[in-house]
Design brief:
- The protein is an alpha/beta fold.
- The protein has one domain: Flavodoxin domain (Rossmann fold).
- Helices cover 39% and strands 18% of the residues.
- It is built from 8 helices and 8 strands; from the N terminus they run βαβαβααβαββαββαα.
- The strands form 2 sheets. Strands 1, 2, 3, 4, 5 and 6 form a 6-stranded parallel β-sheet that branches.
- The longest helix has 16 residues.
- The protein is globular.
- This is NAD(P)H-dependent FMN reductase.
- Pfam families: FMN_red (PF03358).
- Its cofactor is [4Fe-4S] cluster.
- One of its GO terms (molecular function) is FMN binding.
- One of its GO terms (cellular component) is cytosol.
Amino acid sequence: MTNQPRVVAICGSLNEKSTTRVALQNALVGVESEGGTGELLDLREFDLPLFDPSNRDAGDAAELKRRVREADAVILGTPVYHGSYSSPLKTALDYCGFDEFEGKTVGLLAVAGGRFPITAMDHLRSVCRALDAWVLPYEAAIPRSHSAVVNGAFTDAELESRVVALGRQIVLYANIEPCPESFESGENIGAVD
């Protein structure tokens, strides 16, 4: 890894006026303030059909995997749909695997229209654990997103600060020594199917 950790932030929202995208852009401000370089991977810009294990490089999957694999750390950002993370992010993660995530530091960010965006991050934490990634204990949750972000800007300075801190934390821990393989990864047959 270089002295300047490279971070990719994957936006799991396809909404043109996505609060998730705004939040990830703010997290990348934190990445750069801590000396890292950041890139937003906007899933609207990738052709990713539903995952079919018989065609692991469908559409733009090879490009997505390359960019994730070349990063030192990843921030996953998602809107909360029915208490979990979005289907575009699920599809992107299905195309990725150990080559992209094993031993990598991952930060989590979830955005909810309601008051409880935590379960989506719990689900993402489980997926990352199954891929032997190291997930930051620090995470950013944005409840009541319709009032938290207006016209592309945070209205709540505390939430904005928390999101920027996620970007700083991902740089600080981008080179953490990976944990030993998890039980979940050893049982993750789908990753090598």
